[in-house]
Design a protein that fits this description.
Helices cover 33% and strands 22% of the residues. The chain is globular. The chain binds zinc ion.
Length: 302
């Protein structure tokens, strides 16, 4: 992995993954001991992305073996990861039920331990399918009886048996080319009247920047990404569950396929300034209400 400094000549810096513009400015440096990264912000549409351009194969190799070891010091799901995923799965399923979504066929891209697939299948009786590039996590989910494949290339559906729910939970920020993936989901995997459920860290409350996060989203840029790739956003939740009662760490959006509203991506103003103010606010809340700012890890209840 190379590391691009702010003074790198512009022709070696990625184009904006959202609008394709070659104009970007320095946003923040991730000071990571092994994988320091520069993040840039698009001058045209305000999308925040890593300067380093991951090759698809490089990213695939990273996720198949290294990612979990780097994040959790273990390539098998730890109790902590499983407890958080179980709690998150319950909360997401409640959001679906409260929105009147009752899926028949569920595809979870980046399904990890399979917790969300199992929770949905228990609650709605739907048929679960997962995509998980990490070898040991995929195996773990398969051992739970789930059908899980390493990439969306391995899924073949015809028009009559498309998925009526496709979820990407803490996945879009990891994609090398989120526009292409989301268009492909809509054009080849999602039923015409199906639902897309997406959750990402919120640039205005979560640290957001880490080696595996190729993009970092505000509510505005996530919505622009969904609009550009042909979805209509039906509901948005800003929340901290299951990690915080008061910090809006995550953005969850429920969307449906629709015509792209506009090919022109709308910019957002003062992104870096807002991030600084919001992270300052977070430090104040952590100081004043520490037990509500960060909840203890949930117990592993299975
Ligand atoms: Zn852009």
């Amino acid at each position: 992995m190379t590391h691009t400094s702010p003074s790198t000549p512009p022709d070696t810096i990625r184009r904006c993954p959202l609008c394709g513009s070659s104009q970007s400015r320095h946003f923040e440096h991730l000071k990571h001991p092994v994988m320091p990264m520069e993040y840039r912000i698009c001058s045209d549409c305000s999308y925040v992305f890593q300067a380093h351009a991951w090759e698809e194969e490089e990213l695939q190799a990273y996720y198949s073996e290294q990612y979990r070891v780097q994040m959790e010091q273990s390539d098998r799901p730890t109790d902590r990861v499983r407890a958080i995923e179980n709690a998150r799965a319950r909360l997401l399923t409640e959001k679906l039920a409260a929105s009147g979504v009752v899926p028949n066929r569920h595809l979870d891209i980046g399904c990890s331990t399979g917790a969300f697939l199992l929770e949905c299948s228990n609650k709605f009786g739907c048929q679960p399918t997962g995509v998980e590039p990490g070898n040991s996590y995929r195996q773990f989910a398969q051992e739970r009886g789930l059908e899980v494949v390493p990439s969306i290339d391995a899924i073949a559906v015809d028009t009559s048996d498309r998925f009526d729910l496709v979820s990407l939970i803490h996945v879009v920020e990891h994609l090398a080319d989120p526009v292409t993936t989301l268009v492909r989901v809509r054009e080849t995997l999602l039923a015409q009247n199906g639902w897309l459920l997406v959750e990402v860290p919120n640039l205005y409350a979560h640290d957001s920047l880490e080696p595996a996060h190729v993009s970092a989203f505000s509510p505005h840029t996530l919505e622009q990404l969904l609009l550009k790739t042909g979805y209509r956003v039906m509901r948005t939740w800003m929340h901290g569950q299951p990690r915080s009662e008061i910090l809006q760490l995550y953005i969850t959006m429920l969307a449906k396929p629709g015509k792209p509203a506009s090919t022109q991506v709308q910019a957002e103003q003062l992104v870096l300034f807002r991030r600084k103010i919001c992270l300052f606010q977070r430090r104040v809340l952590q100081r004043l209400m520490p037990s509500r700012a960060w909840l203890p890890y949930p117990p592993l209840d299975e």
